[in-house]
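Late entry, written up from scratch paper. The run itself happened at the end of the previous shift, but nothing got recorded in the book at the time, so transcribing now.
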Amino acid sequence: MIQPLAYVHPEAKIAQNVVIEPFAIIHKDVEISEGTWIGSHAVINEGARIGKNCRIYSGAVVSAIPQDLKFNGEYTRTHIGDNTTIREYATISRGTEEHWKTEIGSNCLVMAYAHIAHDCRIGNHCIIVNNVQMGGHVHLGDWAIIGGSSSVHQFAKIGQHAMISGGSLVRKDVPPFTKAAREPLTYSGINSIGLRRRGYSNEKINEIQEIYRYVYLRGLNNADALALIELELPPSDERDEVVNFIRSSERGIMKGPAGRESYNE
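Output as recorded:
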């Protein structure tokens, strides 16, 4: 159902039962899958690959040219998974030659006026609240939430099930399962409420809390904390996720509650 006042380039690939409202603009080399709704005045640029049952609201701009001075017109894309909602005036840049695409997973919510820069990789079930500004190459794990008006430094990594308080400045990596708040950004416990909502047992939540006691509450550097975690705590998916995330961090992880900044020492 393409309204007469919408513009759809003849080379765009639009599945059946896609709704495109008046004054929306769909450029060439765009693919939109079944059941998706495109609101009035939304702009879908070249290289967009939009999944099934997405909702893209008025004024949103998807797959815009990257705001990166190194971009030289190379062919890149933006991939958006199924059942993802992009609210009013959110902007999403396509990739550069470093990764070739910007990726947003399935069942995500990108709220109004958020910006997702080039080459970002957003997992599934993520929530990016109003006015969040994300630099290029940011990685966001599944089920992560970024509070409104937060800014995320380029190349930062935010682990799965992490929750970041509104108005935060994310300069360092945020490990999985944690809450992050204050300025400078600080470990504020684990995201126990979110984990319970997603079916984690009390025993599993206690296990994750114990892992972070080693990381943030025992006065250890990262190398020693990770070695003791692997030596003293039983193997589990959660333990390995935390250990691997911290060990691979290039920017260092956020501060602990005592103000100690953690690096891969």
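Residues 194-248 form a domain with the Udp N-acetylglucosamine O-acyltransferase; Domain 2 fold (CATH 1.20.1180.10).
(Scratch paper discarded after transcription.)
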